[in-house]
């Protein structure tokens, strides 16, 4: 069992690593980027790689017995299985396409799972200087101030976030656009920010009411944000209504009032 003092220390270490990586992102944001393609529209930059290396080096020095899963190391060396051991799950730059285009919705996402349960969450947008944090059972915060999910009870009055994803085969694109077309009749409006982690934080602080995404990159997109949503009083779940699985590449989040309405709507189209 990990005590509260250790959890606070883990959070402080994650915040420090995120802020150091944020400095690299902030500098790179205003410079010419060296861009590589991981897929047809899925991008990676030198900044992604430098940030992951910095975060891992920082945390490995402090916690040499912990496990580590990162987006760029997974891309290079293959998938690491999530175990019950304390595991740091890192997206060094969520919103790489935004970063390349100078669109300021980018962030560092750091999550710590213990017993496969998301326990620590840090999501930091260094361009607009917003730091979201959460410890399981201890609340969620934005720049040190407590946050909570919206109190919206009607789906038709809700602001929905989702993403189109990076796959461009006809079947995936058709399914995505058909979902969006149907959902526009069910909600007030729809947003695509380009960052799964920041969408989750948008739910946590009440800017967004409902969010779902299918087929995102991996657990690094959700490990930090899932803690923050739950600690802000929200719910994180599979779009089918089943329990959230951090490894499934499927996520939905909302306040407790809107979950059933979102699930009912998505079941008709997912």
From TrEMBL:
Binding site for Mg(2+) 2: 93
Entry's transmembrane regions: none
Cofactor(s), by name: Mg(2+)
Record keywords: Hydrolase, Lithium, Magnesium, Metal-binding
Binding site for Mg(2+) 1: 71, 91, 94, 221
Pfam families per record: Inositol_P
UniProt-listed GO biological process terms: inositol biosynthetic process; phosphatidylinositol phosphate biosynthetic process; signal transduction
Domain of life of the native organism: Eukaryota
Gene Ontology MF, one: metal ion binding
Claim: Manganese is one of the keywords in the record: no
UniProt signal peptide: none
Enzyme class: hydrolase
Catalytic activity of the protein: a myo-inositol phosphate + H2O = myo-inositol + phosphate
EC number, UniProt record: 3.1.3.25
Record flagged with keyword Magnesium: yes
Metabolic or biological pathway, per its Swiss-Prot or TrEMBL entry: Polyol metabolism; myo-inositol biosynthesis; myo-inositol from D-glucose 6-phosphate: step 2/2
Family designation: Belongs to the inositol monophosphatase superfamily.
Protein's recorded name: Inositol-1-monophosphatase
Organism listed in the record: Glycine soja
Upper taxonomic lineage: Eukaryota, Viridiplantae, Streptophyta, Embryophyta, Tracheophyta
């Amino acid at each position: 069992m990990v005590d509260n003092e250790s959890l606070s220390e883990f959070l402080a270490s994650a915040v420090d690593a995120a802020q150091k990586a944020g400095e690299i992102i902030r500098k790179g944001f205003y410079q010419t980027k060296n861009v590589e393609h991981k897929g047809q529209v899925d991008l990676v930059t030198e900044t992604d790689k430098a940030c992951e290396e910095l975060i891992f080096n920082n945390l490995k020095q402090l916690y040499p017995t912990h496990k580590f899963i990162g987006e760029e190391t997974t891309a290079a060396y293959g998938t690491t299985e999530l175990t019950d051991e304390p595991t740091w799950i890192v997206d060094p730059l969520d919103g790489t396409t935004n970063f390349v285009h100078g669109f300021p919705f980018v962030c560092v996402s750091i999550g710590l799972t213990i017993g496969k349960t998301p326990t620590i969450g840090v999501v930091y947008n260094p361009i607009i200087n917003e730091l979201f944090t959460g410890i399981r059972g201890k609340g969620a915060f934005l720049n040190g101030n407590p946050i909570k999910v919206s109190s919206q009870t009607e789906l038709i009055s809700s602001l929905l976030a989702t993403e189109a994803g990076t796959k461009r085969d006809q079947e995936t694109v058709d399914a995505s656009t058909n979902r969006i077309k149907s959902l526009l009749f069910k909600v007030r409006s729809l947003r695509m920010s380009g960052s799964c982690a920041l969408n989750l934080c948008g739910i946590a602080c009440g800017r967004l009411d409902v969010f779902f995404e299918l087929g995102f990159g991996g657990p690094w997109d959700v490990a930090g944000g899932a803690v923050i949503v739950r600690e802000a009083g929200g719910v994180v779940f599979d779009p089918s209504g089943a329990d959230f699985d951090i490894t499934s590449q499927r996520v939905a989040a909302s306040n407790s009032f809107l979950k059933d309405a979102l699930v009912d709507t998505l079941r008709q189209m997912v």
